[in-house]
## 1
Amino acid sequence: MTYDTDKHLDLLAHESLEIGKMALYWGIGAFLSEKDLAEGKDIELINDKEKMLKFYQTLDKELGESAKTVLEARKLFQNHKIDKEKTFKLYSAAYIAVQKVFFKILSEMKQCNF
């Protein structure tokens, strides 16, 4: 989508936050082992944002920074939706998170025999 950021910065901020959150949730399932998933570690990470942040920071520096930006924006959303710099940083973080998770899922799919 395209937005006139002078008029609809809040829409871009909201969409970026939602996409970033979804990428982080999907990433948990993509990056955890089958054993960790069976033990419910995914639910633990989704319920504890600090643990989720540490998970991503340990996994990949760039993804960890993106996760930090998305999770902080979640707490301080009122500030993000009126500040262009913060909104663009959030957009970039969401894009990086989606890209990293997508490529992890794609690499897993390549290993499967369909």
Note: The chain has a mean pLDDT of 93.
## 2
Amino acid sequence: MHPPLLRIDLTVAAIVFASALAGCAGNVSDGPPAPDPVYHVGDRWVYNGSDGFRVKTTWVETHEVTAIDASGIHIHITLVGPSVNVEREELLEAPGLVKIGAAMDIETRRFSTPFIRYQFPLTPGQTWNQRPTNFNESSQQSGQLSNFRRVEGWTNVTTPAGTFDALQIRVIMRLDDSTFWRSETNCDYLILYSPKVGASVHEEKNAFYVERGDPLQAMVRAQNTVIDLVSFTPGK
């Protein structure tokens, strides 16, 4: 799905990522917590997505609740674009708690304990940190990733779907995909979650790894993704 990766100097990259961590701090404010969303069969979110550096890959991403039963909340996800055609399924134990689904991109992971995407009620200043064990169906490997998240506060964002009051969430993850030739992937994400639609309305995702043995310790950028909500259709 990603175009050729971009190598960048470690020192420069460190400055970029550190700046990103503090980038929107002045634009957020305190406020009330956001409660658990209530999902219904037929709830449907449509997003525009793009990824890449010099040449962008684009797609339309659709999430739809297909069933709610004793096993959890079933969500069917498709990504369709000129060079993208992906279908996958997610299973939530409860809103925000992923039993089967992706952590970074379009991979499918099966978590032994739920991966906490959102810890409701979401409250400004709230943090959580976990190391869930999982099996990655794409790589056929088991591992344990690191998932740290902080709810920075309320902000306002405009997307093709409209203008939303949203909670800004900073995500720092270290994946479990290191090999003999490269380090694990490090992810720095900004997620804007809107209680009005019960999901994210804007996401900015950056990730990198370092090749082992590289004397310059240059970072290889692995992800540069922007996702915006286009529409939300509630189910019955």
Note: The chain has one helix and 15 strands.
